[in-house]
């Protein structure tokens, strides 16, 4: 895809959640298995358990992973070239430290078969804080329920809040 389209896609993915946050949170089926937040919870439970099959099951094949970083007040959007399969391969490697992404302040917006979930997170490597930021999930509801087709995050190492285990 030509670079200008990626820029437009990145802008859309970044601006839509911000606009939705201003409107407030709407989750008509919160707490049900059909709730997009249940996908996010299953994803992080699978990550903590290093269960690559359960982790993969939350995504559509070919899902896009991206990150927004800022240097000197200039934002940059990058995609993970290895994609979801690269992340799953890393998750499957043995490690003495648990991967524990704890979340807070979820906002869920749904319009038909499209959902957006925006959550604050703090990532712990074992018992040590590693980094924090925001995860912005884009999901589609298909025959198998909600699946993630895009996950974009921010990441910083300073001012990370303490979040309780299992959150």
Q: What do these coordinates show?
A:
The chain contains 4 helices and 6 strands; from the N terminus they run αααββαββββ. It is α+β, with helices and mostly antiparallel strands and 167 residues long. It has one domain: Nuclear Transport Factor 2, Chain: A (Roll). A 6-stranded mixed beta sheet has the order 2-1-6-5-4-3, sandwiched between helices. 23% of the residues are buried.
Classify the fold: give the CATH topology.
Answer: Nuclear Transport Factor 2, Chain: A
Mean pLDDT: 85
Number of beta-strand segments = 6
Distance between the termini: 37 Å
CATH class: Alpha Beta
Percent range of helical residues: 25-40%
- Structure classification: alpha+beta
* Major β-sheet annotation: 6 strands, mixed
User: Which strands sit side by side, in order, in the main sheet?
Assistant: 2-1-6-5-4-3
Task: Tell me the strand percentage band.
Answer: 35-45%
Q: Which CATH architecture would you pick?
A: Roll
Number of domains: 1
Number of helices: 4
What does the secondary structure layout of this molecule look like, with pairings?
Elements: H1 3-23, H2 36-49, H3 52-56, E1 59-71, E2 74-79, H4 83-92, E3 99-111, E4 114-125, E5 128-142, E6 145-154
Parallel strand pairs: 1-6
Antiparallel strand pairs: 1-2, 3-4, 4-5, 5-6
């Amino acid at each position: 895809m030509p670079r200008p389209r990626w820029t437009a896609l990145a802008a859309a993915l970044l601006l839509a959640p911000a606009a939705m946050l201003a409107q407030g949170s709407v989750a008509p089926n919160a707490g049900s298995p059909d709730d997009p937040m249940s996908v996010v919870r299953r994803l992080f439970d699978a990550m903590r358990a290093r269960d690559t099959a359960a982790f993969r099951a939350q995504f559509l094949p070919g899902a896009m992973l991206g990150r927004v970083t800022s240097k000197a007040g200039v934002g940059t959007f990058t995609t993970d070239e290895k994609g979801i399969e690269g992340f799953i391969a890393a998750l499957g490697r043995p490690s003495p430290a648990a991967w524990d992404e704890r979340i807070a302040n979820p906002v869920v917006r749904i319009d038909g078969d499209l959902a957006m979930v925006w959550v604050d997170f703090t990532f712990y490597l074992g018992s040590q804080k590693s980094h924090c930021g925001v995860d912005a999930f884009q999901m589609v509801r298909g025959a198998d329920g909600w699946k993630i087709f895009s996950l974009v995050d921010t990441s910083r190492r300073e001012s990370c809040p303490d979040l309780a285990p299992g959150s």
